[in-house]
C-alpha cells in the first residue's frame, strides 16, 4: 500500500477529487492533508472524507523537520501538491526524491514561476492573447515550476474567453487528469513485479465491469491513455465483455437470428483482443530494445503479452468462481466443488504470475529474446477465405 499526503492551501476541490478517486483503491491511499492555512476550506472537505489534517507555520515548512516527522508518523510515501501556496524546503524534497508532484494551471514553461498561481495565470494568458492554455503535471524541485514535466494537456482559448472561462476549462483538465497521472506513477511502485501490476489492474477492471454487468456498458478507463496500465485495463474489459457474450449465446431460449449477431460480435471482440495483445507485446519490445541478447539466448513458446492475456482471463475465472462459492441458491455440494476449483485457480494464478515475471527477467538479462508475429488470420481476409472470395466468382 502506497500512502499519499496531499499538500493544499485553498478550498480543496482538487484535493477532494484526488481523495475520492483513490477512496476504494486497494494499493494507494490518501492518509493525510498538510496545509499552511488553518482556515482553508480544504480542511472541512477532507474531514468529511475521514482524512486527518495538520497545519504548519511558514517557519516549519522552511525548517522541514517538523513536517517530515508528521509525514513519517503517517508512513507517507508520496507528496501531492494541490493548490499549495508555500515553497518546500530542500530537506523535505531530499527526503522524497522524485516523489513530490505538482500541477500547474498553464503549459509550462510559459506562465510559471513565483507569483504565477490561480487567477493570476489565467489573467496573464488572456492578456497575452494566447490561443491555448492547459495544465502541466511535474516533479517538484527547489525552483518554482521548474521540475521535470510528467504530463501536459491543453485546451483552446477563444478570443471571447475571460480569465474565468479559461479557469473553468483548466479546472476540468485538472479534475480529469491529475488523479490518473498520480495513479500511473504510483502503480509502478505498488507492483513488486509486472504480474502484480497486471493483477491489480485486471481486478479493478473486473470489478468496474460488474458494477453494471452489461456487455454494452461504456468503458471508463481510469488510466492515462497510452500507458501500459490503460492497455491492461482495456484488455480485461474486452475479456469481460466477451465472457458474457459467450454466456448469452448459450441461452437455450435465444432467438436464432441473435445467434448470428452475437457470433459476429464475438469474432470482432476476438480481433480487438488480439490487436491489443500485439500492442502490449510492442510495449515489451520497446522496453527491452536496448538489451544485449546472449549468444545462447532462446525464444519462449509464447510472448509475454500472451501470458498477460491468459492472466487477464484467469482473473475473470477467479471472480466468477468466487461468485459461485458465495451463491445462496445452491447446495453445499456445489459450493464445495466450486471452492476446490477456486483453490486450483488461485494456485494457477500464482504459478502463471511467477512464470510471467521469470520470462520478463530472462528477457531483461538477455537469456531469452522475443518476437512479435503479426496476425495472419485467414478467415477474416476476403482474399484468403475461400467462402468469401468464392462469392466473387
Structure description:
With 393 residues, the protein is of the alpha/beta class. The protein is 53% helix and 12% strand. It has 13 helices and 9 strands. It has a 7-stranded mixed sheet, covered by helices on one side. It has a two-stranded parallel ribbon with strand order 8-9. β1, α1 (13-21) and β2 form a beta-alpha-beta unit. α8 (194-212) packs across α9 (228-249) and α8 packs across α11. It is globular. The model has no long low-confidence stretch (mean pLDDT 91).
* Helix percentage: 40-55%
Large-scale geometry:
globular
**Mean pLDDT value:** 91
The biggest sheet, with number of strands, parallel, antiparallel or mixed sense and barrel status, is: 7 strands, mixed
Total count of strands: 9
Gyration radius, in Å: 25 Å
Structural class: alpha/beta
The proportion of residues in beta strands is 5-15%
Following the backbone from N to C, one meets helices and strands in this order, namely EHEHEHHEHEHEEHHHHEHHEH
Helical element count?
13
Distance between the termini: 63 Å
Strand order of the largest sheet: 3-2-1-4-5-6-7
Q: Show unreliable segments.
A: none
Task: Provide a compact summary of the structure.
The chain is an alpha/beta fold.
Amino acid at each position: 500500500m502506497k500512502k499519499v499526503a496531499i499538500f493544499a492551501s485553498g478550498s480543496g476541490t482538487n484535493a477532494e477529487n484526488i481523495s475520492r478517486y483513490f477512496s476504494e483503491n486497494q494499493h494507494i491511499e490518501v492518509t493525510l492533508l498538510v496545509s499552511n492555512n488553518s482556515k482553508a476550506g480544504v480542511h472541512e472537505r477532507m474531514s468529511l472524507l475521514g482524512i486527518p489534517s495538520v497545519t504548519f507555520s511558514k517557519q516549519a515548512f522552511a525548517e522541514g523537520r517538523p513536517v517530515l516527522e508528521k509525514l513519517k508518523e503517517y508512513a507517507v510515501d508520496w507528496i501531492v501538491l494541490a493548490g499549495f501556496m508555500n515553497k518546500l524546503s530542500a530537506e523535505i524534497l531530499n527526503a522524497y526524491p522524485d516523489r513530490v508532484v505538482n500541477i500547474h494551471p498553464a503549459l509550462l514553461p510559459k506562465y510559471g514561476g513565483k507569483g504565477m498561481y490561480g487567477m493570476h495565470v489565467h489573467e496573464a494568458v488572456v492578456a497575452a492573447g494566447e490561443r491555448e492554455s492547459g495544465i502541466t503535471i511535474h516533479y517538484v524541485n527547489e525552483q518554482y515550476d521548474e521540475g521535470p514535466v510528467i504530463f501536459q494537456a491543453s485546451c483552446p482559448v477563444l478570443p471571447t474567453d475571460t480569465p474565468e472561462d479559461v479557469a473553468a476549462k483548466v479546472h476540468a483538465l485538472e479534475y480529469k487528469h491529475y488523479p490518473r497521472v498520480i495513479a500511473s506513477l504510483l502503480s509502478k511502485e505498488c507492483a513488486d513485479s509486472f504480474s502484480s501490476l497486471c493483477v491489480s489492474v485486471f481486478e479493478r477492471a473486473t470489478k468496474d465491469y460488474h458494477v453494471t454487468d452489461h456487455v454494452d456498458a461504456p468503458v471508463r478507463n481510469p488510466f492515462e491513455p497510452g500507458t501500459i496500465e490503460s492497455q491492461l485495463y482495456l484488455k480485461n474489459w474486452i475479456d469481460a465483455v466477451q465472457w458474457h457474450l459467450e454466456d448469452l449465446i448459450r441461452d437455450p431460449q435465444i432467438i436464432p437470428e441473435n445467434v448470428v449477431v452475437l457470433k459476429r460480435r464475438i469474432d470482432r471482440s476476438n480481433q480487438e483482443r488480439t490487436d491489443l495483445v500485439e500492442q502490449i507485446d510492442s510495449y515489451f519490445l520497446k522496453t527491452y530494445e536496448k538489451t544485449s541478447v546472449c549468444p545462447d539466448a532462446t525464444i519462449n513458446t509464447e510472448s509475454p503479452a500472451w501470458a498477460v492475456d491468459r492472466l487477464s482471463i484467469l482473473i475473470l475465472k477467479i471472480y466468477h468462481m468466487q461468485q459461485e462459492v458465495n451463491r445462496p441458491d445452491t447446495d453445499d455440494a456445489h459450493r464445495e466443488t466450486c471452492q476446490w476449483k477456486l483453490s486450483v485457480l488461485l494456485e494457477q494464478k500464482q504459478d502463471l504470475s511467477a512464470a510471467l515475471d521469470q520470462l520478463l527477467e530472462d528477457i531483461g538479462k538477455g537469456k531469452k529474446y522475443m518476437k512479435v508475429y503479426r496476425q495472419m488470420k485467414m478467415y477474416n481476409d476476403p482474399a484468403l477465405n475461400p467462402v468469401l472470395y468464392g462469392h466473387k466468382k
